[in-house]
Design a protein that fits this description.
The chain is mostly beta strands. The protein is built from two helices and 29 strands. It starts with a strand and ends in a 13-residue tail after the last helix. Bound molecules: fe (ii) ion.
Amino acid sequence: MFYHKLGKFPQKRHITFYKEDKTLHREELFSTKGFSGIYSNKYHLYMPTAIKEIKKVQKNTSEVWESAPLEWRMFHTFDLEAQGDPISSRMLYLYNDTCSISTASPDQSCQSFYKNVYAHEMIFVHQGQGTLKTDFGAIDYVEGDYLVIPKGVVYQIEVKDKNNKMLVVESPTPFDIPKHFRNEYGQCTEAAPYCERDFRPPSRLETFDNKGEFQVYVKAGKDWYIHTLNHHPFDVVGWDGFEYPFAFNIHEYAPIVGKIHQPPPVHLVFTTESFVVCNFVPRLFDFHEQAIPAPYFHTNVDSDEVIYYVEGNFMSRKGIKKGTISHHPMGLPHGPQPGKTEESVGKKETNELAVMIDTFAPLQSTSNVKKVLEPNYAKSWLES
Ligand SMILES: [Fe+2]
């Protein structure tokens, strides 16, 4: 990310900064990689450590699908909905030690606060609109937004309608802009499919000077806690730095097209140390006179491929609905279903919209996958 600032803070770091009542604001360095990575400095009204109670809580977790066969899978996430807020309505489908993939279908806003202390979160907003409220300020979101929330950020989501649908991906390492999309100073290059203007950092900082009891649900891997603060968690009067939540809308992505089929890395959005996020957006197809726009069969021996389908007609796949996920395990070939290659020849453009996650370690399915599984998907390449 780039340097951003909101609210008020002193002229230098680590110097006195008084409130109107002549007491000090409390400075908090919010940093990555110890003291060596990117960071922000926040200024609180109260000590961020002022906690009245720490309580471990039990949460129902999704069971592992122990006997899941090694096969290609497709499942329909819109068919399995849990009610609740954007945190409590999450349904976990796929995971490994460095990636978790869930969906959420909230019909209500968060009443308490939440933070994930072991994982950064990327929330793709498929449907609905609302506001991501954080201690760094608020970001209004709309359909198609990726909300990237660094680990440790306290947040709430206010939904403005009842039909919100979200894809939620967690990672212990940050969602970064790929290195080759940036120059040596970190600025997006001319060849990148987006630039700094497309990213939306928090734009409004509302400071709450409230004492009382405020519950923050803290997720630490599989464990959950409630930390009860003696003050409102959004007591920041100002901050500056490079580490903060932000939004980027999928429709701002300017796809790179070619004379012949371009491989998925041209569709990269974010990279982590353990997986990449790509998106397929409406674009013109390849312009060689004999081009086959549909992908060729391919075996990725080092990555599991997960595609979440958003809108449009997907060029290589049949039976897709909104919210469908396909999961193609590493080491097995995959490609267009019968008829789809031929169908793509001569086509000039596509209106497909999808988000892909390619993980560098195998993903385990939960029993939620089994509940909404498309039967016989693994045999759908048999031509009749
Ligand atoms: Fe693929």
